[in-house]
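chain below, 500 aa
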Amino acid sequence: MAHYKDTEKGQGLFLTVNLSEQIVPGTFEYTLDNLIGEKLDLSIFDRKYNNDETGAAAIEPGILLKIILYCYSMGIISSRKIAKMCETNMVVKALAEDTEPHYTTISNFVSGMGGEIEKVFSEVLLVCSGMGLIHGKMFAIDGCRLPSNASKEWSGTKKELREKYERIKKVSRELIRKHRENDRLGEKEKTADREKVKQLEHKAQRILEFLQTHEERKGAGGETIKSNVTDNESGKIQGPHGVIQGYNGIAVADGKNQVIVAANAYGSVAEGQFFPEMLEKTEQSMRTIKGKKHPLSGTTILADTAYFSENNLQEAKDKEMEAIIPDAQYRNRDEQIKDSWGRSGKEKFDARHFTYVPQGNYYLCPNGKVLAFRARVKLNRNEGNKYEGKVSDCGKCPYAGQCIRSKKKTYRTLYIPILKYAENLAQRMREKIDKPKYRKIYSRRMQIIEPVFADITYCKGITRFTLRGQGKVNIQWLLYCVVHNIGKCNTAERRKRGAA
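prediction:
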């Protein structure tokens, strides 16, 4: 017969716990505690407090910042769960210096940071620079698409939301009619049905109020896009696992150690339109770090095809940067990629293969047929001229497989953007990216920026935003980026400790 040890649940214990000993050198929490306690200037938070003569004493901003960043580093982003960690986790308790802030205190602190988080982000960057983690010669930009605290159910154009409102009201009216019929027959009404009517009426009222108080949302090209009743600044975005209602967290990372030097969150999948703004933020950060008036001069910026546009290339040139941003068709022109994908080795025809005839304002195709001018049209955010071939010319053309892009079309259409600038940088970029030298440089993009998002989402376990509104979501995105950068400081300290 089995014999087990005796246990005593009610046994009292007297344990000696020194909170400072819970923060072990070499750990993330040690770097975090030292950085916030010794190296960052948090005086900017003092302006938010006016309790020096009256009111209760407040918890120090540095303490709140430490426990929030540490919990974020473990993928805990709920204010309630962070507050619980202050009671149950010994490391968090040590970082909190035995304070137990209420979850509303944590929530209000995060959502109310605003300009303060940008100051903290800059201060951490200065620490990273002081440790030699930032080279400032090559950068990569990309976006990380995360769900927000909003539901796709509440998305739609104004027309779609109005139709949804009518459907809800129709169902509600039918339930009320049944209730009245049951009352007439003397049957007892179900409580669940009454609650369902209340829920439907509440939903309908929310949609109606939204329709009355909000304008139709417009995309980057002026097209109508779907609004969201819960968080109208979020957007329907194609994520890695399908369409999400969320935000696109864009980051610019330095090429040496993947330290994030600029970051911002946007409720749009069209990343390219934010390239100029992100360059400005990068320039501000590097000016703070380097102390130079033009810190981006002579540097290189890498971006994927979503950022390819004449405007973006011109923006980089204005800052004296070399931008390596391939066009959407560059893979089709790469023989190695075509071979590995089992594609035809025949080259696809683009605008370079067509000859313009200014006397008649038309183009000649590789087979010598005419593509006539049809109209001036909008091309995303730019204008362009549209030229079309004839069905009779294209139908039996020996080059049709290389020329006509869509299986549904039987003739070739050519769109020629109207240039706003004296030089065509987009065309020059197409020619550059086909050269082995620039393809090799561009291959570094994934090495620089993708590990950043892998660290935040996979390693740290941060997979969504919990706040609503672009301003508050941007605070949270910057906090995620600060956690990543502090992790880089911790890695550098451990390497230094190991080398010593």
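The chain has four domains: 19-49+56-111, 134-147+236-330+434-482, 158-215, 344-421. Residues 344-421 form one domain.
thats it, cya
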